[in-house]
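Hi there, hope your week has been kind to you so far. Please have a think about how the structure follows from the sequence. I've dropped the whole record in just underneath, so have a look:

_____
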Amino acid sequence: MQQLSDAQLFRIIENGIPGTGMPAFHALESAEIKAVVIYLRALQGAKVAVKFPGDPGRGQTIFFGKAGCSACHMVGGKGGFVASDLSRYARSHTVEQIRNGITSPTPSGDNSSRTVTATIRGGEKYAGRVRNEDNFSLQLQALDGTFHFIAKSDLEGLIVSQQPLMPSDYGSTLSPTELSDLVSYLMRVANGSTAPLEKPKKEFEEE
């Protein structure tokens, strides 16, 4: 595979190899096949030049500031615990997939996509996300990352928030430029950099 060009890998993934066990993946969109090629190159240790749609530095500020993503998500060991770690998210998602994931998150019908407040005997309360549940108990991860094993026989109440963990209004609260910056930050982190990003020089901002 190291001897093949990106275009050759693209055609193999899209059309398969007749007479072998390699099937054709016509169901994948062009952007998805390109993402697979990039991932294969990353597995080979190749340094893939990444073109950012925005400014990763500003995106970092938005992630930990205005958008409040870090309240739930972690990146590079920093941030919240109750949602997925986004450190490698951009490695397997295209720019448009990342943007759509931010502006049009897929809703889930179960309690795992919402925060809950559990009240146990004595009035003690725990707020967080249900990680596991069976007929006799539930495991809740609090907002600070700690886990609590609660027997349902000790549970006096369980209030499920009507709002999903992932806000659905980023398409209106963030401008297109801010969304591009946020996507760029996730791409930058996924490509191996978690260090603080320097503010771009003025001449680059004017281009």
The longest strand covers residues 155-164. Helices lie at 6-15, 30-43, 56-64, 95-103, 170-173, 176-190, 202-205.
